[in-house]
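Re: the multi-chain job from yesterday

Posting the exact lines I submitted so nobody has to dig through the queue logs.
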Amino acid sequence: MARFSVDYSLNARDPADAKDKAFEICVEQSVEFPFDLVTDPFIRSEVVGQTESLRKLKSGRYIAHISFHDDTAGKQFTQLLNVIFGNTSIKPGIRVESIRPSAAILDLYKGPRFGAQGIRKITVVNRGPILASALKPLGLGARELASLAYRLALGGIDLIKDDHGLADQRFAPFRERAARCAEAVARANRQTGRTCAYVPNVTADSADVIARARFAKANGAAGVMISAMLTGFDAMRQVANDPRVDLPVIFHPALAGSFTASAQSGIAPGALYGRLARLAGADASIFPNYGGRFSFSKEDCSSIAENCACRMGAVKKAFPMPGGGIGFQNVREIASLYGEDVILLIGGGLFRQGPDLAKSIRELRRLAACFS
Amino acid sequence: MARFSVDYSLNARDPADAKDKAFEICVEQSVEFPFDLVTDPFIRSEVVGQTESLRKLKSGRYIAHISFHDDTAGKQFTQLLNVIFGNTSIKPGIRVESIRPSAAILDLYKGPRFGAQGIRKITVVNRGPILASALKPLGLGARELASLAYRLALGGIDLIKDDHGLADQRFAPFRERAARCAEAVARANRQTGRTCAYVPNVTADSADVIARARFAKANGAAGVMISAMLTGFDAMRQVANDPRVDLPVIFHPALAGSFTASAQSGIAPGALYGRLARLAGADASIFPNYGGRFSFSKEDCSSIAENCACRMGAVKKAFPMPGGGIGFQNVREIASLYGEDVILLIGGGLFRQGPDLAKSIRELRRLAACFS
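And the result, structure tokens for all chains:
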């Protein structure tokens, strides 16, 4: 019978203490019941998590590799997340370092429908970094945002996404915005002969997520963006699997920051933005780049890129999509870190270069092409 | 025009630095665009967040009270959460300390349908702590769980909830479990003349949440439990507002631990388990009690209880529902901390007392009655 597993790092005084703490995770994440009161032999031996291995990471810190019976996750993504980190998220000093789905779980969730290669086909950027920007600021009307989208597409950007703060506000209601922006980008594409992709933000309440994603598809969007911590991860999975949406999905990290605020607790950036996001269907994963206004280190970012591309059964690779305070002055360094398989997301930094967006985008492409 | 507001604590060297950092939050949580590039006067003056006040909390730490235009939240709970903490969650050293919804937002979300008083009516526990226990361990069949529910109800417990790890696993599929347990509790109630409430866990993927909640209602459940960080908060709000569900909702903290792992970042326990949970419709809020196996302090727990009961427009009070490692030896102390308006959740600690559940529950009630 199949089991999936999770690597947890934890604080412990010595190997015996680490073993005890790992066993506490085994119990907490499965039966959540005093083990000595569990009498059923099947529950004791199969349902309760099992420490498969334990190793010292550094003084006072250990890695426990713990397996769980596939059936504990009950074929629901919410419950899989619950087994991975539900109650243990509330315990101090324990971090999810990696997630290793079983073959059955990989078969159930499948991951990205398009993957990085699919996004290359849609944008027709066969090699090199894909250049992306964002429609903002919040408060502009749908016509103004569409006009900005038109100028960006005409200027040669590869992908345009809504700012994650554009929801369904009266300033630019979702349907009007998505339809106008998709139309504006299509118009620019007809002029340039290029294939710039427009990706609206479909983050919304409950059933509105899938409704907006289907509207986006029907109105010419080339992908959709979802802040999965706001909607719940399963809403992203549902959109990624919906045959009527049939578009790449970009994961946005809004509200996810608390999971990566500490190296001692939460979920490691590679596990969250790479493995979990892919498992839930993300074709690209937005994360805060190092050196900008957020708190990620260069190592965090490298780990995310690795986990977006690492082997995980037949699950497709996703694009890492660093953003958040990337300026022209550090594009060269950033591009050389990620190599060519990346979507570079530049919002404010691009607009700061001045009103000639075409010129700025040409310069951006020149700077980003240094990876080879 | 109305604005809602949020109190953030933040690290700063001095008042000038604190002012700069507060302004960064104002921009990040609204336009997410370099302020000097924002030209529209309405966006500059209204859409961008505003620091209403700033005060020193202690050396190096300040509280910024920041207001946002109601329209930025766009009448969607996901977007309200996004404005409160979306991208700022990824910045180091900033914590949401309190949330102050505007009258318009309170009118939109309304909060708990039943509230603490409604739960008292349903359980017919007119005063004193309500005693709750949980069905576990995961791995038992639906008949076994129903048998346990029957014994707990017969023994005099006031409220029985599913363990949050009971989802829809093959061991005890949701519909069979919910129907059997509700029936077993009703049978016990007919024998005792009491009104024990059964609350199944309806945490599930996307549309399944509301479907399970409606099934629960149709099959005699007295409430439903939702791990809102797994489903997304809006799924809980939707269930709380659904006329076909029409049951009290209990919020469970699975996966929410990373938000309260640090006093310097995330969301303060009172804001998360009290104000946010209530705003999203929770009639009771489960949280890890101090002194158990989780990481909350006594002050955290007091703050949650205060924020479950504090004035927030016409939003009803919710019951604080501490659980997680409560043993008989500390029931007296715990009950005296919370006073009578509390649901005491005791799972493993109750079963540890031995097989005579009725006797243990009598003893528990005696210990818990010390609040006066």
